[in-house]
Amino acid sequence: MNNAFKKTTLASLASACVLSSGLASAQEDPVKLGLMLPYSGTYTALGEAITNGLTLAIEQNGGRLGGREVEYVRLDSEADPSKAPQNMSRLVRGDDVDVVIGPVHSGVAMGMLRVAKQTGAITIIPNAGLGAATNQLCMPNVFRTSFSMWQNSYPMGKVAYGRGHRDVVAITWDYAGGKEDVAGFEEAFTEMGGNLVETIYVPFPSTEFQSYLTQIASLEPDAVYTFFAGGGGVSFVRDYAAAGLMENIPLLGSGFLTEGNIKALDGAGEGVLTTMHYAETLDSDANRAFVSAYQAAHGEAPDTYAVQGYDTGAMLVQALDEVSGNTEDQAALIEALAGVELQSPRGPMRFSASHHPIQNVYLREIRDGEHQVLDVAVEQLEVPDDACRM
Amino acid sequence: MDLAFFGVQLLNGLQYGLLLFLIASGLTLIFGIMGIINLAHGAMYMIGAYLVYDLTQRLGNFWLAILIAIPIAILLGLIIERLFLDTLYKRDHLYQVLLTFGLILVLNEAQRIIWGGDVHSVSVPAPFDASLPLTDNLQYSVYRLFVMGVCLALAGVIYWVIRHTRLGIIIRAGAVDRDMVEGLGIDVRTLFTLIFSVGVALTAFAGMIAAPLTSIAPGMGDSILITCFVVVVIGGIGSIKGAFWGAILIGMAETFGSVLIPSLASMVIYLIMAAVLLVKPRGLFA
């Protein structure tokens, strides 16, 4: 941990103690954080990484928020959209939590946000990237500490054009996430004068790519832009390399194509370019301090999800200090959250009017089995969120 | 599409179809002869892939891993048939469907407990870890050619067993009239155990040889199951020949459908199934 960080933490701790000492006894109760994250099923690892990051940030603040103890109420979201409204209601109405943190899955987010709208519960989304969450559905009580599909793909449109690619083929799954992602790329790329020759939609969740790769070879584009994630990402990149396309047609993607998949790619991902709001190799004091603290606390290297959890925790630390631990005055707490500015492991981060992070998006290349940061693709990128009027 | 790419797509369709055949052959045998709709068939495909991943990690040799994984798969089929299915033959079909559906949940959860939720892969094994140039910018993995060869060889073996052996005669008879076969004094119980174990082993083996071509992830067998049922229904339930031609047809349809009519790509195989059933309600070869 660097000294500056230590000093500010201590200073804020001290001021929090002074301020909170004069408050009424209601404030002596712990701050209740409701974690609605997947602790079983496919997304278990993501839920756990977010929880680890979150608790690390709060532990570094002496385990307190605004001078108060913290109580965590964990609820397994099972990444099941159909159970989302009911689970969210249980946290907000049953457990009476002060802040809800979740979810991972965009489908679950839709259900959660419905309840957030009805109850006004303060909700911080530490992952789910659907654009609507801070755009069409935007609410003053909802924040996001992660990314949107658009934010991670738009910068690649600029990068692709800047690297001299003019005719590009895009390929993704035929579902909402894939379409939002490719739309971001297309917007930036065509804005600059690039030509999106064709967008290929693969039925979700098929990972049988041979016929599409043949089609790509016959179209002979300058580059291919793609969004697949998880097993689909691994299959696509490996098939792309095995078909010999990597040598002639560079493969570009938004970060989740290869995030968490490098080992499974088995060397096939070398040279793939992706854009994303974080890379484990980022060369900054904040990131180095975070990586070693996380390693010490949890015995493994952090990933993007851990950073998103960590920043959620850091955001709460800062905002609750600002309001001296008073969670009764919701409007003041929301204002404090909206004003949070972080020196995050991912770089400087603050919030837009729609409560979405304004953050750097990095251009990364896989070299020797690591995401090496080549450049900042777009500095302090703000998501337009045109439909959001608060 | 010029001629060269048309040729490559034919190859893609053939390779996909042959792999489908290997998975569907076990399904159609179990379905046709035992009358059991084995919903857990896709999960067995997944287990095959995970087994070979795990053993390759431990032993460092893909071929050795397959040699050890095959008996494990046969044993798994044997245990499931003797322990669970055996008690349900006298009951209604619904019980068997419920059992095999339950098996999906159990096998998927077992996979998560043993291997976790991460995506894994298996390296393409030597000596097939090379590529052949097809066009000036496209190559084809030699391992894919090898998989095609294995599928064709297995298809030949299965065809020979069914056509030219005593066991084959019993299997063919069983597919037509099970009660009569039993009436003729043939030990149907042993036959069922054999068919189920072989059926499970065939699909698990498909998962094993497909492992280096795909990503090994939770639920990877679920989507392939539906496609295989389509193959079985098109080919005619219980017919190995039908499964073969059905699989080739579906492989070609998915390959060309996805390129020529992308908006209907996810529907093409069902449209074909509907068309076949209109003309031949029992499937092409039943």
Overview of the structural elements:
The complex is a heterodimer of chains A (390) and B (286). Chain A contains twelve helices and 15 strands. Chain A has 390 residues and is α/β, with parallel strands linked by helices. Chain A has two domains: 3-147 and 281-355, Response regulator (Rossmann fold); 150-276 and 363-381, Rossmann fold. In chain A, strands 7, 8, 9, 10, 11, 12, 13, 14 and 15 form a nine-stranded mixed beta sheet that branches. Chain A has a six-stranded mixed beta sheet with strand order 2-3-1-4-5-6, with helices on both faces. In chain A, a hairpin with a 2-residue loop joins strand 12 (341-344) and strand 13 (347-351). In chain A, helix 2 packs parallel to helix 11, helix 3 (84-94) packs parallel to helix 4 (106-119) and helix 5 packs parallel to helix 6. Chain A is globular and about 65 Å long. The model of chain A is unreliable at 4-11 and 13-25 (pLDDT under 50). Chain B is mainly α and 286 residues long. Chain B has a domain at 16-123 and 137-218. In chain B, 73% of the residues lie in helices and 2% in strands. Chain B has eleven helices and two strands; from the N terminus they run H-H-H-H-E-E-H-H-H-H-H-H-H. Chain B has helices spanning 3-34, 41-59, 62-83, 93-115, 142-164, 166-176, 178-183, 188-210, 220-235, 240-260, 268-279, and strands spanning 131-133, 139-141. Chain B has a two-stranded antiparallel ribbon with strand order 1-2. In chain B, strand 1 and strand 2 (139-141) form a beta hairpin. In chain B, helix 1 (3-34) crosses helix 9 (220-235). Chain B is globular. The model of chain B has no long low-confidence stretch (mean pLDDT 92). Chain B: It holds the Pfam family BPD_transp_2. Chain B: One of its GO terms (biological process) is amino acid transport. Chain B: GO terms for molecular function: transmembrane transporter activity.
